[in-house]
Amino acid sequence: MSKENNPLIDPKRHAAATQMVHGGGKRSPFNETSEAIFLNSGYSYPSSQHAEDLFQGKIPGAHNYSRFANPTVDMFVERMALIEGAEAGRAFASGMAAVTNAVMSQVRAGDHIVAAQALFGGCRYVVEDYAPRFGVESTLVDGRDPENFARAMRPNTKVVFIETPTNPTLELVDIKAVAEIAHRHGAKLIVDNVFSTALYQKPLELGADLVTYSATKHIDGQGRVLGGVVLGSKALIEADVHTFLRQTGATLSAFNAWVLLKGLETYALRIERMTDSAEKVAKALAAHPKVGRVIYPHEKSHPQYDLAKRQMSRGSTLLALDVNGGQEAAFALSDSLAVILISNNLGDAKSLITHPRTTTHARLTEEVRLETGVTPGLLRLSVGLEDADDLIADLHFALDQV
Ligand SMILES: *Cc1c(COP(=O)(O)O)cnc(C)c1O
């Protein structure tokens, strides 16, 4: 009797929920059930010859310094690579560190970036303000129509960067169409996949070259630590991404990697429940007379419903709503909530509501805000793990106060 012939010995054959519990399970000689935290910065070697071989890359999988190699961090990356279907990945201190690395590791002075204009604030800063300081120009386009990317491509375009669905208005970008355009011009497509989650959208299968996550969001999912991860082919990760991480050092700590590993064990369970509730809340809000518009990718009223059905297996844990009466009404609603908290974080066990115009998107001009759908009455709701009926009752009470 032996498990060698059991097909489930291969974690790639496991369903997502199983992968998130068992994937990337390195064990110490003590065979601990839960993953260990390796809180060490360095490693010692049995001999000088061993050290020389290791530094020459002759010992695969070896560890020589925790800035770029730590067993707990490795386990987190392996677990993420499994659910993403990626050959390799690297972890970072935050989602922004991951995005900055993914983008900046692919360009040099004289190159050009094309990005969708509706991006998370920090991501927009990296392509619009930071990259140009080093001679990398960028063009921002309305991401809803793939043709806008085709028109913006130049012979020196090396990176196309998108986020879908976007923050906060849940607009979609057609990943497959944009991947084809990028590749036709010899550019790499980088997708920030936070809003759809690794469970419900597979950018690599649709043609993306690198996928990034803020692990701070659904992956931790309990408001504890920051983290980020970049996933893709062995070739891209082991060359550019690894070198950038190794030499610039935005490393994920072993402790935070361990918290994220524990977060992943309940990832599928949490996201399924949060998505079930988001669907119910979206339907309840859409039926309310004081709500002008509810934006939810798998609701028929979403302007890109067909694309949402094609590219996302479910509709996200986030939704946006436009309250009649503008900013005053949006503030009155938020301030009357008893269960849902006012916070700009997302993907958390706690339901969180934010007014993008005055918080996350306050840095942008009113013109840009309106272009990207950030109206005065817009609220973004991240649906958590509370009972869906409690959330709906909380929102109904608050709407009555508007
Ligand atoms: C939060 C977020 C980021 C940045 O991640 P941090 O962990 O906060 O640095 C990037 N992109 C998206 C879509 C996000 O939601």
Description:
Homotetramer. It catalyses: O-succinyl-L-homoserine + hydrogen sulfide = L-homocysteine + succinate. Pathway: Amino-acid biosynthesis; L-methionine biosynthesis via de novo pathway; L-homocysteine from O-succinyl-L-homoserine: step 1/1. One of its GO terms (molecular function) is pyridoxal phosphate binding. Belongs to the trans-sulfuration enzymes family. MetZ subfamily. It is a single chain. The protein has 402 residues and is α/β, with parallel strands linked by helices. It folds into two domains: 3-265, 3-Layer(aba) Sandwich (Aspartate Aminotransferase, domain 2), CATH 3.40.640; 268-400, Aspartate Aminotransferase, domain 1 (Alpha-Beta Complex). It is built from 15 helices and twelve strands. It has helices at 16-22, 48-55, 71-84, 95-104, 121-133, 146-152, 175-184, 197-200, 234-248, 254-265, 267-286, 305-311, 326-335, 366-371, 388-400; strands at 88-92, 112-116, 137-141, 157-163, 188-192, 210-214, 228-232, 291-295, 318-323, 341-342, 352-354, 378-382. A seven-stranded mixed sheet has the order 1-7-6-5-4-2-3, with helices on both faces. A five-stranded mixed sheet has the order 8-9-12-11-10. Helix 8 links the parallel strand 5 and strand 6 (210-214). Helix 1 runs antiparallel to helix 3 (71-84). The protein is globular, with a radius of gyration of 22 Å. The N and C termini lie far apart (68 Å). The chain binds pyridoxal-5'-phosphate (PLP). Pyridoxal-5'-phosphate binds at residues 94-96, 99, 120, 122-123, 163, 167, 192, 194-195, 214, 216-217, 226, 228.
